[in-house]
Model the fold of this input.
Amino acid sequence: MPTDWAALYEAMYGDLVRFLYRKVWDAERAEDLAQEAFVRALRHDPDNPRAWLFTVASNLARDEARSAVRRRRHLELVRAEIEADPPAASSPSADTERRERVEAVRRALERLSDRDREVLLMWDGGLSYTEIAANTGLARSAIGTTLARARSRLVTAYEEQERRDVASD
Amino acid sequence: MSHLTDGQLHAFLDGSVEDLADAEPSDVRSHVKGCADCRARLEAARLVRDRAHSLLRVAAPPSLAPPPIQELGRARTDRPPGRWSFGPRPESLAWAATIAVALTGGWLARGMIDTETAGRFAELDRVAGTEQLAEPPAIAKPAEEQPTQPLAAGEGAAAKMARLSATAAVPADGPPGWAPVDRARAETLLGGRLRTVEGLPILSIFARDVEGTPVVWTAQQLASGHTLNLRQSPAEVSDAAQARDAVRANRKIDDAAEAEGLAGFESVERIHLSGFLIEARAPLSPDSLRSLLSRLEG
Done:
């Protein structure tokens, strides 16, 4: 049965961008990489395109993270964002708060092991336990355990951070 | 059954007990019903899961609407400048080329395929809003009889890459010694059905005589813009003879592909099917090529 690429693209684009955003923390770059993953999928016509797309996206994000150019660019990005995007006049506190929350989630995610983070983000991206197991090489029976640990650590890390922030204010 | 593990509780919450390899789903469900301790742990796990989910929702990019598929690989320089614009990104051109090839390939195939074989190109066209494959079917013709798709203004380097790639992948006149034929003629020569892959547009069909036995070469369009080459002959043609011929026949395409930097990524598979030997070559992984061959019909 041929893959319904149009339907797959519509259905999965958001999931894939979210998945990538939580790895590269750059919305535009996440969209770029998601598009590249789709282009590669069209080129390769894989048997299981959903799982394949996440695997490719994960590899693209990893390559991205390894790039020294990318790291330098990210610093520029953060600086440019702060300088060029002052909070809107209508809701300055809301924008600031949102950015702080995103940064806090980011730091909490970074405290997870690579494997826990990958499994958590794949589940949130819509992959089944079986697909996650196939993508990560973990046993199917280990996915629930990994997710339980990853979720708990994410919540704990975030709350610890909140407490520290409150204490430092 | 002993108390459920954290992993089993989360699998239960996620509706994934069927995916558990270490417990029977029915056992897990019945244990949850009968064990107050595990139900309490389940509620605690639910709070953790929902909290983690809400945190991840915070860390989501602002806009997730997919761009139109025809803009999928457009270079950032084509877009309005934004604060995150960092100049040209070479890889974007490659994506644009691939998508443009896919869409261009769909156009090239119009009039050469029937509605059943519109495949992915029809889907891409539908998303792109062009609906270019709605014309009535026609008998397959060699590719050189098809006009060249005019490219939209402003596509620039990406469009040029797409045109070059498409040219490399579609044989214009076939290798020397091969004659363009239609499907009916090919089947007459073979003395049986011509096997093609369901859902892929047929670009061209050529035939030739190899040591007194007919060989038919069918080129089908992959979504990537590359070509799946199928060579079919009665099984009595020796593998060695067909292999030699296949090498000669592919040389022209290989040369063009190499010129465009597309060479070096091709798999070859051979299968026997209903008294025929079919050799397939395509720039796909061996697994993908085998998967395609499972869709041989005719």
About this structure: Chain B touches chain A through 66 residues (CB under 8 Å).
